[in-house]
């Protein structure tokens, strides 16, 4: 401001020689000074607001979101760049960490400046809303008493964000639509009671799927294995009258197969596809299902669908073809080379990466044949970002490895604190941050390259 005033004074200083002024020159000088004052004030105002108008100081671009289970398209792939290529022995730097989420195996979803996750508070299975910047709790909404289980109590699912709403399915069957702003309940119903389903042995683990105006869940009831609800009201739109398989632990995905919009799921008995418009059963493939726990989310690519399960079963690739408004499925291969339990598989450039039993494996998507295997961090889960696999072993070992079909190349690992149960929650990479949920804890790491 000092330099501006100095300029102002210089511009308005009397320029006539003392004792030589005339009335005419005085009048001209007065007019000139008035004009100069206006110009100076305009320049001062422009200088004051210029920094706010400069792009470098303007509003920053919004951070990327992770709006649901396994990301925007449920593939586990983060479209990130500029991340660390290697980690120090202690792991990437911690941005923040919290330890008040109670129990549970669910992952996180991220929308705007908030994080959503399910946990337990005061004995209730609950949805938590956290501040993205520091992890502090904004609100908590209970969804009934939490259920116990011999592999760990509490919720297993991940909330799904959609505009100003949030959808969460608890382990007790309670499905709720909440306001993202304050957690207040818009509608709520119990899918096990309403559709006469049975809770699986290790409890509901599904994450609801938003499909246009519909919300898709798997109650596993008679004539209602999969159902579509109006997402705004919760009212039933259709049920799968031809499909009565009990629910497993997998979450559905959507696909457009040669013009037929399709819901792809994995029930307790089969890999299935139903027409999204009315729930008509279009295929049911049983060989890939085991009789214990089908968990892994199906992968749909290039008019093909890939299923995999563990317990000595394997994997299968089905070719999909639309005929007269339906989709027919034919087996391309069945293989024992990928028996994924619950850590998920990721498709990248024609290769699938995931844990075959407890060994990290890369297989050829087209043939189902093994390309390489490595013990890596032990049995676990994974996600992908910027050329790397982010690995979380169930025994609390975290790893970073190249996502490459040429072999296993690790560039970092560290350990996290044991919370008394296996570390089964899937990790998330979003906007340069790496999130690990482990029971009641959630830690945010900075993995942005400097």
Topology of helices and strands:
Elements: H1 2-12, H2 23-53, E1 77-78, E2 94-98, E3 109-111, E4 114-121, E5 124-131, E6 137-145, E7 160-162, E8 165-169, E9 174-179, E10 185-190, H3 191-195, E11 209-211, E12 214-217, E13 227-230, E14 236-239, E15 253-257, E16 260-266, E17 271-275, E18 281-285, E19 299-301, E20 304-309, E21 314-323, E22 326-335, E23 345-348, E24 351-356, E25 359-364, E26 370-374, E27 380-385, E28 388-393, E29 397-402, E30 410-415, E31 428-430, E32 433-438, E33 441-446
Parallel strand pairs: 1-27
Antiparallel strand pairs: 2-33, 3-4, 4-5, 5-6, 7-8, 8-9, 9-10, 11-12, 12-13, 13-14, 15-16, 16-17, 17-18, 19-20, 20-21, 21-22, 23-24, 24-25, 25-26, 27-28, 28-29, 29-30, 31-32, 32-33
Helix pairs in contact: 1-2
